[in-house]
Amino acid sequence: MNLRPMILAAALATCFSAAPALAADNPDAARLSQRLTALDADSTLNTFAAYERLQARQAVTTLDQAAKRDRPGALYVAERRVAIAESAARTQAMQRQVDQLDRERAELLVEASQRDAARTRAENERLRLQAQMQAEEAERLRVQSEADAASLQDVETALKGVAGAQAARLNAARDRQAKLAREEAELVTGGKLPTAKRDSRGEVFALDKASFGAGKASLGSGAETTVKTVAAYAQASSSPGVRVDVTAADAKLAQRRAEAVRDALVAGGWPQGQVQVTGKAGKGDRTELVVQSK
After folding, report:
1. What are the pLDDT digits (tens) for 63-87?
2. Which of 62, 112, 252, 253 has its CA 20 to 30 A from that of 47?
3. What's the rounded Cα separation, in Å, for the pair 51 and 56?
4. Domain 182-291 belongs to what topology?
């Protein structure tokens, strides 16, 4: 058993009870004694630094009883002892607070660890149940598959029907995609796509015969907007390329017209490297833009 704190407390109490009245001609001793009294009266500090306060009280008593020639040295010691007692009391009080905070922090960490463990257990249980459900579903499908093996022909017929339905849905989706691409292109350019037909080459857009003036190779403003709309449509439908086929009475004129259409496509944002142009002589003026399919 550690008796030192009990002995210090008893000695300090004895010192306080036996302390003589301070001499009236020693104001320093009275001042230091008041500081110790204030420290003793502070409920947040008076339980700390018992040994330091005992030494300070003894030093003040020595100062009070010292002869005048010895007072400077006794005053120095007493002031240091009082300051040490005050500092030690505050330090020990703060240390107790730190210890309390450390204990609370440790308790919080334990609680957090327990919560994490509980969450982990719950997640493991969820995964276990999920795996069990999947295993049960797999077994159900296996049993069902074995039962359906007896009527394989019916299954094959059903699968063909499903394939046909899927093909129909795919064609419908493609038509919807083309419609959306058309609407997007017309909204972006403000133009109007001409009527298209579909053949083995892709979607074929025919420009109006009035797109070029008689014997001219330059597109009119309306025709140029139409070509740019075709370029926007090809981009929206992710076409791999666009082909320009032009027929005119003169092959050179047909080639220049095809190149003019190509330039309008490029101006509309279509890559020049993905445009093929063909101009040839023939009866009647015909300009076709083929938007190739993937």
Report:
1. 999 988 988 998 999 899 999 989 9
2. 62
3. 9
4. 60s Ribosomal Protein L30; Chain: A; (3.30.1330)
